[in-house]
Amino acid sequence: MNEERLMTVLLGPHVSEKSTNVADRHNQVVFRVRRDASKPEIRRAVEKLFEVQVEDVRVVNHKGKIKRFGMQFGRRQDWKKAYVSLAPGQDIDFLGGD
């Protein structure tokens, strides 16, 4: 697996009410990922960047919304998010606090 590719797989954390609940209850973290990323790539990227053990990865493909601009219709891009289950005792701190 190419190291440069792994660095570009994760686009950022996806912060929402649902992702916060999932993080608290099931020790999962939600990321926005590239649309062509596979589960093994996501697993390796999270393990490499955050130095944690990953138990499971689940992905969801979202279709872009149809939006209207005056009389014309347009469409937002499709995107993918990944629910990453961490091993017991593992945690990712995005805020960097002690």
Produce a short descriptive summary.
This protein has 98 residues and is an alpha+beta fold.
Identify the strand order in the major beta sheet. Answer: 1-2-6-3
Radius of gyration: 15 Å
Calculate the terminal CA-CA distance, rounded to whole Å.
33 Å
| CATH homologous superfamily placement | RRM (RNA recognition motif) domain
Q: How many alpha or pi helices?
A: 3
Query: Can you tell me the CATH class?
Result: Alpha Beta
Overall form: globular
Give the fraction of residues assigned to helices.
25-40%
Q: Mean pLDDT, rounded to whole units? A: 93
Q: Which spans have pLDDT < 50 for at least 5 consecutive residues?
A: none
Give me some keywords for this one.
alpha+beta; 4-stranded antiparallel β-sheet; globular
Describe it:
The chain has 98 residues and is an alpha+beta fold. The protein has a single domain, classed as Alpha-Beta Plaits, CATH 3.30.70.330. 30% of the residues lie in helices and 36% in strands. It has helices spanning 3-9, 17-26, 39-50, and strands spanning 10-13, 28-33, 54-62, 66-69, 72-75, 79-86. The strands form 2 sheets. It has a 4-stranded antiparallel sheet with strand order 1-2-6-3, with helices on both faces. A hairpin with a 2-residue loop joins strand 4 and strand 5 (72-75). The model has no long low-confidence stretch (mean pLDDT 93).
